[in-house]
Structures are given as structure tokens and as C-alpha cells.
Specification:
Chain lengths: ~210, ~250
């Protein structure tokens, strides 16, 4: 079973439906025992980093998630959920993250030209580099994913598994062993997104 | 590279898509779910559902259909029509909408955009403006384009973005339904004034109108249309191929 962590941030309807569409046994839950029993975990998130990090902590799910990740359980963060996996974020101040991915979350305005619009919103091509991560095994170079974000993963070179070009090379996805994350929304990226979720469902052996 | 978005708009009343629909090989052409599926499979980058229901019962039907679409289609969904309160935002977001567009609701209650953006984020709030020239000035109209609010459009739209709107749908009443192309003059005025994405609406008559739009105004992010897609006059796939041929970045 795949557990989508429900810690009171955002709407999990689309995420749940998209996993169901690829045939996954999926459940939205805040029950710690259920999360411990799950085979894989999804950390969703929309909105501001500080607020989401506080809610995750309040729910007590941050510790459960960290423990399960350390045990080797596959974890995927999506959008803000990916950002929460990092060490810290500089969105409106400086806030601590889960520390599961080495790096920091910084404003895209640090690296993109001034004339480009913020947030980076819309469909952008994914670039995978030389070694395509198992998460993208059903994708081809240049496939499009749907992005909506104003902050990005920085100083995480070792973990970057996909990038997108928006006046600069932005982190599109990261992975460190069993922990991975997508800055874009697979659940809103049509067939391409579903292929990523399918690959995640199949990933266990590839990752650990 | 970020691509230009092509967005079909579906007007829904009594659970059906309004305006004639003319697709071959689809059993139920005016089912929003079926039509959304066809658009999604044929390269639509996003879908807009416009609720033009009149009664409470119809509204419930609309939200049921929205849930059904969100279960079936995995591209961004925007919902507009009848959004007057934060509770309306909540209702459609819970059904799986990603963005909510406000029009008359923001005119009646200027705080609505601010409150919604604070709760759901700027990316969730779309200001949709119906604009028409009156004595050479762009004026904002409300109530589906029937009532002149007297407000100057560029200033109003800018104000909405300052309040937290993360995207603008600019619908030119002057070019709407005429099928002679988008309102480039009006679109230029607005896209020069705001820093958020601008979606052109009103006037698309054929593929060339989209090519002209994106070539003339590279700042415009997306083109929205209803009837040319519904009537099958323009297939989204063909449109995107033509845009690509003209070096306009699209998702194919």
C-alpha cells in the first residue's frame, strides 16, 4: 500500500486519483501505524514552506517519515513536499526541513533573468543527463511536466536526477537512495506524470 | 523551455457542455467528462470549466461532474463561474480543481482575491476580466459582459495582481465571437502592465490567429478558446504542429 501523508496541507484528491489510475493500492492517511505499515510514502504539499513544515511537525508525521525513510522505505515528495525533504529553505526567512536530501531551497529569482515571470508556471521539458533514474524509465528526454513554483532546490548537485530550463537550469527532480522528489506535479502532467507514478510504484528493488 | 499553453474552455449548464459540439466518433459529445477526455488526449495543456448554472441543484450537479473530470483527467483544471466567496473556492478545490477564476465576484467583493490568495496561494487565483472599449478606453464589464463597471481595465487587473491573483484571463468583448483574431492591442496593454502569466481569450477563428498572437506578443503565455475547438474547426494537435513550425514552443 502507498500512503499519501495527510498533514492538513492542500488537496490530495488529484494525487490519490492519479495513483489509483495506475492501479496502485493508495490511501490518504494521517494514521502513524498505517504509515509505518505502508510500502511506500508520498509527501505532498502546496503553499508556503514555513506553514507546511509547521503543520508536518504538529502532526508528528515528520518523525515517522524520517524514521521510515532511514529504514529504506521509498519516499517521494511532490512540489512543496519535495522541498520539505531538503535541509532548509529560504522562503520568507530561514526554515529547517527534514534533512533527507542535502541542499537548500532558494528563490528562482536568484538564478533566472529578471524579465521571466514568477512563478515558473506551465509545461516544461525534463532533461535527465547521462544516467536516467529508474523513476523516469518510461520517459524519454524532453518529455513535458507541469510546474508551478517560485523556489527551487539549490546546492543539491549530487541528488539532481532531472532539470528543466527556465532562463537557468532548475532542479526538476532529486533522489538520494530511497528518497526522491519532484518539483513538478506528476499528478497534473498527463500521461508523462502517470508513467512516473507507475515507475515509483515499481521502484523498490531499483532503489534500495 | 516553458511552452505556450492551449486551453479549451467548456461552458457547463445542467451538467452538459453548452455551445454546439461537433466531434466524430464520440458517443456523447456534450458530456463534459467525455469532452474533457478527448481534449486531454489530444494535447490540451489545461482545461477551463465555466459554471453557468442558475440554481442550487444545478450547482451540485456541476461539482459532481467536476469531481468526475478530476478523477479521469490528469492535467490542470481551472474552474470559473459563480465564484463569490472563499467557500466557493473551497467547494471547487475539494472537487479537484487546481485554479479558480474570479470575475464578477472580485468586482463585488474586492477582498476576495486577497483572502483566497492568502489561503490557497497566488498560483490558485486567476482574475478573469471581461473588457470592452468604451469611447476609446478599456472598461471592465461584469455580469457576463452585460454591465459596465466604469473601471479602467489595465488599472483594475494590475490591482487584482497586487492583491494576489497569480494569472490573468483577458477576455475581449470586442473580439469575442467575431473570429477575426485575438485583441492584440488590449492584450499588449495588459501584458505590459503585469508580471504574472496572461491568457488571451476572445476572437480565435483559426490556427493562424494563435500563430499571430504568440509571434506578435511573446509575453502572452496561453490562448483560450471554446467554439473553434468544440465545433472541430481546429484540432489541438494540428494547431500545436503549426505553432511548432513557426518556432513557438509547445508541448507535443
Amino acid at each position: 500500500m502507498i500512503a499519501i501523508l495527510d498533514y492538513g496541507v492542500g488537496n490530495l484528491f488529484s494525487l490519490q486519483s492519479s495513483f489509483a489510475a495506475v492501479g496502485a493500492d493508495v490511501k490518504v492517511t494521517k494514521d502513524k501505524d498505517e504509515i509505518k505499515k505502508a510500502d511506500k510514502l508520498i509527501l505532498p504539499g502546496v503553499g508556503a514552506f514555513e506553514d507546511a513544515a509547521a503543520k508536518l511537525k504538529e502532526s508528528g508525521l515528520d518523525e515517522v517519515l524520517k524514521n521510515e525513510a532511514k529504514k529504506g522505505k521509498p519516499v517521494m515528495g511532490i512540489c512543496l513536499g519535495m522541498q520539505l525533504l531538503f535541509d532548509k529553505s529560504f522562503e520568507y526567512g530561514e526554515h529547517e526541513g527534514l534533512g533527507l536530501i542535502k541542499g537548500e531551497i532558494r528563490p528562482i529569482t536568484d538564478v533566472i533573468p529578471k524579465e521571466l515571470k514568477v512563478p515558473h508556471i506551465g509545461w516544461n521539458a525534463l532533461h535527465f543527463g547521462k544516467n536516467k533514474h529508474p523513476l523516469f524509465k518510461y520517459l524519454k528526454e524532453g518529455d513535458f511536466a507541469y510546474f508551478v513554483h517560485s523556489y527551487y532546490g539549490a546546492d543539491c548537485d549530487e541528488s539532481v536526477i532531472a532539470t528543466a530550463e527556465y532562463g537557468a537550469e532548475l532542479t526538476a527532480a532529486v533522489a538520494d537512495k530511497n528518497v526522491c522528489g519532484c518539483q513538478f506535479h506528476p499528478e497534473k502532467s498527463g500521461e508523462v506524470g502517470l508513467k512516473i507514478l507507475k515507475a515509483f510504484c515499481e521502484m523498490e528493488a531499483d532503489l534500495v | 523551455m516553458i511552452t505556450k499553453r492551449i486551453i479549451p474552455c467548456l461552458d457547463v449548464r445542467q451538467g452538459r457542455v453548452v455551445k454546439g459540439v461537433n466531434f466524430e466518433g464520440i458517443a456523447d459529445v456534450s458530456s463534459p467528462v467525455e469532452l474533457a477526455k478527448v481534449y486531454s488526449e489530444n494535447g490540451a495543456d489545461e482545461l477551463v470549466f465555466y459554471d453557468i448554472t442558475a440554481s442550487f441543484e444545478e450547482r451540485k450537479l456541476f461539482t459532481d461532474i467536476l469531481c468526475e473530470v478530476a478523477r479521469t483527467i490528469f492535467i490542470p483544471l481551472t474552474v470559473g463561474g459563480g465564484i463569490n466567496t472563499v467557500e466557493d473556492f473551497d467547494r471547487v478545490l475539494k472537487c479537484g480543481a487546481d485554479k479558480v477564476s474570479v470575475n464578477s465576484g472580485a468586482i463585488k467583493n474586492p477582498k476576495l482575491i486577497y483572502e483566497a490568495a492568502k489561503l490557497y496561494g497566488d498560483q490558485c487565483v486567476v482574475i478573469s476580466a471581461d473588457v470592452k472599449r468604451v469611447d476609446g478606453v478599456f472598461r471592465v464589464f461584469s455580469k457576463g459582459g452585460r454591465e459596465n463597471t466604469g473601471m479602467e481595465a489595465v488599472e483594475w487587473i494590475k490591482h487584482c495582481c497586487d492583491m494576489g491573483a497569480g494569472e490573468v484571463v483577458l477576455n475581449s468583448i470586442d473580439t469575442d465571437g467575431v473570429k477575426q483574431g485575438f485583441d492584440l492591442e488590449m492584450l499588449e496593454a495588459v501584458s505590459n502592465a503585469v508580471s504574472v502569466p496572461v491568457i488571451a481569450s476572445g476572437g480565435a477563428g483559426g490556427i493562424n490567429d494563435f500563430v499571430t498572437l504568440f509571434k506578435t506578443l511573446p509575453k502572452v503565455d496561453a490562448g483560450l478558446a471554446a467554439s473553434i475547438f468544440h465545433f472541430g474547426e481546429v484540432a489541438i494537435g494540428d494547431l500545436k504542429k503549426e505553432l511548432a513550425k513557426n518556432n513557438i514552443p509547445v508541448r507535443i
